[in-house]
Specification:
- The protein is an alpha/beta fold.
- It has a single domain, classed as Rossmann fold.
- 37% of the residues lie in helices and 25% in strands.
- It has helices spanning 16-34, 52-62, 80-94, and strands at 3-11, 36-45, 67-70, 97-100, 109-110, 113-114.
- Strand 1 (3-11), helix 1 (16-34) and strand 2 (36-45) form a beta-alpha-beta unit.
- The relative contact order is 0.19.
Length: 122
């Protein structure tokens, strides 16, 4: 039985289709491979007035088994200290388990794309 999960990505300003297509595909492929079914993917558009992050937190609070998948922690924020604070906020506020696809300790990841030549075989 597949476990339900939410996805969350933050994409740069620009044409929405171009910016969101890669990260959303990556989340879907990871979820399928690891036994999750994505209930919804929350997409934060940089410099937009919306807050997909707040909507994600609300959805996690209503979930029986809260899980959120992110490509990397940089999708929570650009600054490392803020990334940690937002991760901690989600965990404490919702009890969610956060699944990070690209752990910074194992791969270099530039918020939305792997840096060529920096991947480490797993």
């Amino acid at each position: 039985m597949r476990l339900p999960a939410f996805g969350y990505v933050r994409v740069p300003a620009g044409p929405p289709e171009c910016a969101t297509q890669g990260p959303r595909k990556e989340l879907a492929e990871y979820a399928d491979r690891e036994g999750y079914v994505l209930s919804e993917i929350f997409t934060e558009h940089a410099e937009s007035g919306s807050s997909a992050f707040a909507a994600l937190v609300d959805a996690l609070k209503d979930s029986e088994q809260p899980v959120v998948i992110v490509p990397a922690l940089c999708h929570f924020a650009h600054l490392p200290a803020l990334r940690s604070a937002m991760k901690k906020h989600v965990e404490q506020e919702t009890g969610a388990r956060i699944v990070i696809i690209h752990d910074a300790e194992h791969q270099r990841y530039d918020c939305g794309r792997l840096i060529p030549g920096m991947e480490i075989a797993q």
